[in-house]
Amino acid sequence: MRMTTVAVASTGIAANLLIGGKTVHKTFRLPLNLADRTVAGWPLEHGTSRYLRNVALVVWDEAPMTPRLAVDAIDRYFRKLMDNRGG
C-alpha cells in the first residue's frame, strides 16, 4: 500500500534539500505574523486541503526550531481539517 507523505522544513534552504520539500509557511499557508489563536491553512474545500486530508505522514525537518505559535497554528488547522475537536 502506498502512503501519501509531505516533506516540509522551517526554512527555504532546508526545504530545498528535501525531495519535493516546501517550507512550512507555503505548505500550510502559515501567516508570517503569528498570534496565540492564529489558524493556518487553506480553505477546507481548496485543492491543497483535500490533498493534506489524505496525507498519512508529515516529515518536518528542523521542527524543533519552529516557533511554538507556528506549530500550534498548524495543529489547529489539522484539527479543523480532520474535524477532530478533541483536546
Describe this structure in words.
This protein is α/β, with parallel strands linked by helices. It has 4 helices and 3 strands, in the order βαβααβα. Strands 2-1-3 form a 3-stranded parallel β-sheet. α1 (12-16) links the parallel β1 (5-9) and β2 (22-23). The chain is globular. The mean pLDDT is 91.
**Secondary structural class:** alpha/beta
Weakly predicted, low-confidence segments:
none
Annotation field: number of helices: 4
Radius of gyration: 13 Å
Question: What form results from the Cα inertia axes?
Answer: globular
Strand line-up across the major sheet: 2-1-3
Overall number of strands: 3
Describe, in short, the structure shown:
Helix content is 34%, strand content 14%. The protein has 87 residues and is an alpha/beta fold.
Itemize the secondary structure elements and their pairings:
Elements: E1 5-9, H1 12-16, E2 22-23, H2 24-27, H3 47-53, E3 57-61, H4 68-81
Parallel strand pairs: 1-2, 1-3
What labels describe this entry?
3-stranded parallel sheet; ATP-dependent DNA helicase; alpha/beta; 87 residues; single chain
